[in-house]
Amino acid sequence: MTEHCAEMRCAAACVAAPTPRAPLGTRVRRRTALTAALLAGGAAIVLVALLPGYGRPHRTGRVLQHASRWVLAALGVRVRCTGRPRAGASLVVGNHVSFLDVLALAACGPMRPVAKQDVASWPFVGGLARRTGTLFLRRDTWAELPDLVRAATAALRAGHRVQVFPEGTTRCGRSLGTFRRAAFQAAMDAAAVVSPVALRYTDGTGARSAAAPFVGDETLLQALRRVVAAPRLELHVQWLRPVPAIPATGHPATDRRRLASAVESAVARALGQDVVRSAPVRPSRPVAVGLPVADGAERVGAAEVLELAACAARSRPPVLQSA
Question: In the chain, fewer beta carbons within 10 Å around the N or the C end?
């Protein structure tokens, strides 16, 4: 494998390196322990969530924290933390490599994660996600983004940590995807801070592990089997300095872009990785549309706006930007 990955969307070829397998006895013990941890953790979350009274999201968050630790231990994943999550409300933002990421962050402290809507329909897992205050997003429906931002803002104002992966999908762990800006609006609206976190998976030798990434057309069960079969898997969780989400320009889009860029750069530097971006598309023949603009400013017609939107919908060759 090369040191950096330049793919816009990672596939199985990005993690095609062979991975050693743990002895059969170890794999059997891990499967047994995983089943017990899932049953015990699920039962505890359901029981606590059903109790009436104030603070249900906080109670279920604490139980989920312990349940996540049980599951990671049962899988044989050793978590090594540098720093700790900030106390109080914050938007927790990190890079996304594996399905283990959510468990690792939940194990560090109570979180309200943002998940795709499909998770809500998963047997058993969907019910647990709803009871623990997960915020759901239908990723192919941009019209739902304002509702998600409002829900995340309300959760932050109520004192919760809201956890999101702004890359929008998992990657192979050899480069960072561009951080999407929408979720950062919630931190701005709630006057909260952003807590960046960098996640890195290694094997017993300290090299980057190929067992953890969950990419391409692989199913969750296939990824789970690979993690169980790995002889040793370590997850390094590095909590970075919080970034205040304070508007400064008076233009939400500008502030959101600056905030996302600052957090993205912090995570990229911590990982020592490049950021994969789409090649910018620039209009070749500006067309004036009769709108007043400043002297020397470029005018873009409505037809070119449609052309740019069409180009954005198609895949474009990626470029790597160093942290």
Answer: N
